[in-house]
Amino acid sequence: YAQSVTAGETVGVDFDGKSSSSLLLRHGVARTAGGVGEVEVQFQVSPLDRFADDKLDILEINGYASEQTFVLRSDDAPPPLLMAFMRLVCIKATDAFLLESVFRNEVWDFMQDPVSPENEELVLDTLIATFEGSLETLLDADPIPAGPDASQRGILAQTVRESEMRALQTAILFLEEDKKSLEQKEYYQERRLRSLNLDRPVDESEIVDPDVDIRRENVPWN
Question: What gap in Å lies between CA 112 and CA 107, rounded to an integer?
């Protein structure tokens, strides 16, 4: 909304958290201070995914579209929402039981933590490969003119490119390190057993002898 402005007063513009590349592309400006790298990345549920309908339904229930944009920063780990989204995207046949309607209202919460060793490894491999490809594209791009002949827009473009490379490099390093701890992570089955108090040795009183006839008419207190 409009406000009265006094002569000489500084006027600021809120770009609502847009990345430097988006600012440069759409508004002709970019953040150049602070040295924190950032880059936008996009992922989506493939329409060729055999479980696409279930995944899209889960995303819709939780207020998300099939394609999401995330911002990576060089001073932080990949955002938790990215990891959750990719765990859902990477669900394959072995974990597809989580997509059943009985879990429909819970499955997004399940995605906030590692699902299975296979799923988590696929998530990390997919992200690493994607970010390495993006980094390689930036490294192979034509150089932007520098020196006294460089335009202001060219200087900003180079700043943004370097910012994006720093963010991608940080994300790759983090994910590669995270991949080393796959065996130490707690996955859905372990969490579920713990929530049901079944992650413990079985008591002898809980063991049922399959050779014992437990038909209704043979139960002594019937």
Answer: 9
Taking the C-alpha atoms of residue 199 and residue 98, their distance in angstroms, rounded to an integer, is 20
Q: Residue 49: which of 114, 14, 112, 96 has the closest Cα?
A: 96
Give the C-alpha distances (Å, rounded to integers) separating 191 from 27, 96, 121, 136: 47, 17, 18, 38
pLDDT in tens, 92-110: 999 999 999 999 999 999 9
DSSP letter at 106?
T
Q: What is the CA radius of gyration of the chain?
A: 26
**Residue 35 CA neighbour count, 13 Å, CB half:** 0
User: Which tokens sit at 42?
Assistant: 């996009």
CA distance 82 to 124: 11
Beta bridge partners of 44: 67
Farthest-apart Cα atoms in the chain, separation = 98
Q: What is the Cα–Cα distance from 86 to 153, expressed in whole angstroms? A: 35
Average pLDDT over residues 102-131: 97
Dist CA 64 CA 183 (whole Å): 31
Residue 145 has a CB neighbour count (10 Å cut-off) of: 13
Mean pLDDT of 56-79: 97
